Amino acid sequence: MKKTALLAAAAALFAASPAFAQSGGSIGLNYTNIEDEADSYQLDGAFGSASGSFGFQIDGGFGNIEDEVDTQTIAGHAYWNGGGWRIGGVYAYTNFDTGSGSASETAYGIEGTWDLGTQAVVLASYTIGETELSGDVDTSSFDIGLNYYFTENFRVGASYGFGKLEAGGDEADTGHLRLNTEWQPWTTPVSFTLGYNSFDSDELTDADSWSIGARWNFGGSLRERDNATPFDTRTGFYQRIYDIR
Question: Considering the domain boundaries, does residue 24 fall inside one?
């Protein structure tokens, strides 16, 4: 909760600053069903801005899984803005709290986006992380994806990631598939999201989920908002399994 409050304060500070020419973000509420066995809810937010060749993004959220586990996430991104491309770094933190105990994860890496004309954007990232879960779990993943904008306010996206999971001397291959769409049907800046998420790791941990949500957007159309907050990779191990934003 403290980290989410810091996120909101930072977003308000930068939103009030006239120094950044292009800025935008969103606040969203999401429902996720994990393999017809667990329900989760999450409130998330993102804010980003770019001025000249420098840009940044802050995103995070808090939620609950099955009324048993509270989750908190926060991530910071800094990147070089080349106009039609961006490349930079990310640092992310995720925490799980069960009331009787907690687990945390840190992840960091490099990421980038490349515009293919006005309607398509390629996304790629390489991230590594460390998770505290009855001992340390080390993860790494390379992700690549594509967002396609049928209109300024209707986007369809897909991404796939593959990597490694190491724990106690054992190693497993991992795979992560995401499909998502977002549509803002009115001039009122409210959009609706629908997504599918699948994670597997050599029969050690598998999870499929569906999610729906709504967002309040600021900073123009969805295309303009995504230019200000270009990075949407599920950075950490927990984020990939449970589709946590």
Answer: no
State residue 131's pLDDT score. 83
Give me the residues of the chain with pLDDT under 70, please: 1-21, 133-135, 203-204
Distance (Å) of CA 70 to CA 27, 101, 133? 19, 11, 16
Which amino acid is it at 55? G
Indicate the SS3 state at residue 88.
strand
- Answer whether residue 26 is part of any domain: no
pTM of the entire predicted model? 0.85
Give domain status of residue 112, yes or no. yes
Say how many domains are in the chain: 1
User: Amino acid letter at 85?
Assistant: W
Q: Give the integer Cα–Cα distance in Å for 19 and 17.
A: 6
Q: Which residues pair with 53 in a beta bridge?
A: none
Here the CATH number for the domain that contains residue 40 is 2.40.160.40
In whole angstroms, give the CA distance from residue 195 to residue 232: 13
Neighbours of 25 (CB within 10 A): 23
Q: Note down the domain range covering 228.
A: 2-16+31-242
Q: How far is residue 140's CA from residue 22's CA, in Å, rounded to a whole number?
A: 32
